[in-house]
Structures are given as C-alpha cells and as structure tokens.
Amino acid sequence: MEKYKVEKTKEEWKQILTSSEYRILRDRGTELPYVNEYYDNKKEGVYYCGACGQPIFTSKTKYASGTGWPSFWKPIKPSAIGEKEDNSFFMTRTEVVCSRCGSHLGHVFKDGPEPTGLRYCLNSLALDFEEKELSKTDVQNLPVKEKKE
Question: Does 90 have pLDDT greater than 90?
C-alpha cells in the first residue's frame, strides 16, 4: 500500500467529503458526462484536488475534449499527480490520482492535443476550482487549499 503525505481513515474522509465526493475520490467512482460542474467551465483559474486541496491543473491546459468531463493536456507539474493501472470494467486504463492524498481524480488517455498528446479526463466532483488571473499567479508555487472539516 502506498504512503501519501495526507492519510486519513475512511471515517475521517467521510467527515470532510460529501457522499458524492467520497464515492468519486475515495471509492474510485465516475460521474455522469455533460451534467457535471466543470466540463464546460471556461473561467481562468486553478483546479485543486477536492480531497486535500493540492493544486493539480490550470485552465491554461484545459480543453474541450467532447467527452463531457473536464479534460486537460498537462498537470501543473508532473509531481502533482500519480498514475496507477486500472483493470476495472474489463479493460485496462491508466488511473490518475492526487500525489498528496491518493484520491481518484479520473483517467489519462493518449488521444489528447499536442504538445503532450494526453487527455486527463477528470471528474468535476474530484476537483475544487478557484478563479484566478493566471498571468499574475506563480502556479508552480501555489499553496495547498486545505479542506474545511
């Protein structure tokens, strides 16, 4: 079992996450396409892990993938996420997790735009968004936004 900087018991996670957030972030669920909060969000800002508040993606790398989920072609920095093999639903995919707390964010596929060719297809419920003017923000050194218990 992997060790993360933020480790909580199942009960502790349930105290800070809604039941829907818990289903996605901790039980590796998926939300419905097109009816989630951020798939069509066009505001400038930062997307944080919905469980621990680590900054993980920005609107600068978000794009309209046509899948119905928020999609990005690159995280803020490679160390913000982790990847795991996912063999659920009779297929092999690459799961994307928060590197700070291990929470499930979504999956990454090799059908995205250049320059990376990647599509990080994420669940809105796995994210918190903060509107920010990115030209004035040092995204490499953003602080963690702790979730209120």
Answer: no
